[in-house]
Amino acid sequence: MTHRVTLIPGDGIGPELADAAVTVLEATGVSFEWHRVDAGERMLERHGTPLPDSVLDSIRRDRVALKGPITTPVGEGFRSVNVALRQALDLYANVRPARSLPGVESRYDDVDLVIVRENTEDLYAGIEHRVGADAAESIKIITRHASMRIARYAFEYAVANGRRKVTAVHKANIMKLSDGLFLECCRDVARDYEGRVAFEDRIVDNMCMQLVQKPDLYDVLVLPNLYGDIVSDLAAGLVGGLGVAPGANIGTEAAVFEPVHGSAPKYAGQDVANPTALILSGALMLRHLGETAAAERVESAVRGVIAEGVTVPRDLGGSAGTRAFAVAVAARLPAPVAAA
Ligand code: NAD
């Protein structure tokens, strides 16, 4: 079977990482039909919008996309294409696994966390305005609908992946109504899983400290959008940094796979960025497509190349370029098992 996948290379380091990920995914022997579309800064220059309708149309047709990072100007300019994509396609669950990699120097060697971040509302709803010259207001939206479905997703993920505990992360001591509703929904859903998946909650500031000190106490975390964004970078830092942290944006009609990191413009075009996060996002995509064996081969090849310590990307202490690392991973992929 050939899988139709929309490929969005993105800005900054995105295009070289996309080439690297395609090299590895093609080497699995799984058959892809790639539909390459552009979004981001270059499209703004050429077409007056960073997110042309053709990008959304292609993802809606293929139902699956692999995406590089896209730049968002800070404090001015166009709205985040990444946030707009997630909202337009209702990609409500942002799943970001953070797992230690053998050979990568970090504080702990046994971190295995999965961040499940609500992806459509909260302060990322983008409703903000100036109040006169000297004040500004951003509106935080938390709904029962979105909170119930992300909580349900986190528990279903835990069951499907043999995970033992879900921790809801919030600031309901201060935001009693908005985060209070999120927590209430998580507690409601947790009751349906009693005896199968444990449940607890943590206030987000305490959660950050606990993750830094005792990450082994945690398993699946479910968070509203903003805390999910921040805590997933923290979790990435526990396992070697943004260069190795993959992600999936899941909806009912489509799924977009992309790394946690951004477009790192200072490294663009230099063949120095680490493609691991996008390659591992490709492995998450393979699982979503039902190509579990190929996904496991990609993950084990990435781990093998890093553990071997010969072809290691620069952010992990080595000197391998983007392309060389991808070629090494592709070369290490065991041959696909022939169907009986
Ligand atoms: P960033 O993730 O691009 O870079 C932060 C730092 O992390 C870099 O300076 C670099 O040291 C390191 N890094 C990140 N990815 C790496 C890789 N693959 N290999 C090696 N090192 C890597 O974050 P930023 O500087 O805050 O953001 C840059 C741009 O990216 C901004 O415009 C931001 O809005 C955008 N962004 C996009 C996404 C997305 O597309 N989903 C996510 C985050 C940020």
Structure description:
- The chain has 2 domains: 1-94 and 246-340, Isopropylmalate Dehydrogenase (3-Layer(aba) Sandwich), CATH 3.40.718.10; 107-238, Isopropylmalate Dehydrogenase (3-Layer(aba) Sandwich).
- It is 40% helix and 17% strand.
- The chain contains 11 helices and 12 strands.
- Helix 1 (14-27) packs across helix 9, helix 1 (14-27) packs parallel to helix 11 and helix 9 packs antiparallel against helix 10 (292-308).
- The model has no long low-confidence stretch (mean pLDDT 95).
- Nicotinamide-adenine-dinucleotide binds at residues 13, 69-72, 82, 242-243, 258, 261-264, 273-274, 277, 315.
Layout of SSEs?
Layout: E1 2-8, H1 14-27, E2 31-36, H2 41-47, H3 53-62, E3 64-67, H4 81-88, E4 93-99, E5 112-118, E6 128-130, E7 136-138, H5 144-160, E8 165-170, H6 178-191, E9 198-203, H7 204-213, E10 220-223, H8 225-238, E11 248-250, E12 255-257, H9 276-288, H10 292-308, H11 322-332
Parallel strand pairs: 1-2, 1-3, 3-12, 5-10, 8-9, 8-10
Antiparallel strand pairs: 4-5, 4-11, 6-7, 11-12
This protein binds nicotinamide-adenine-dinucleotide (NAD).
Residues 13, 69-72, 82, 242-243, 258, 261-264, 273-274, 277, 315 line the site of nicotinamide-adenine-dinucleotide.
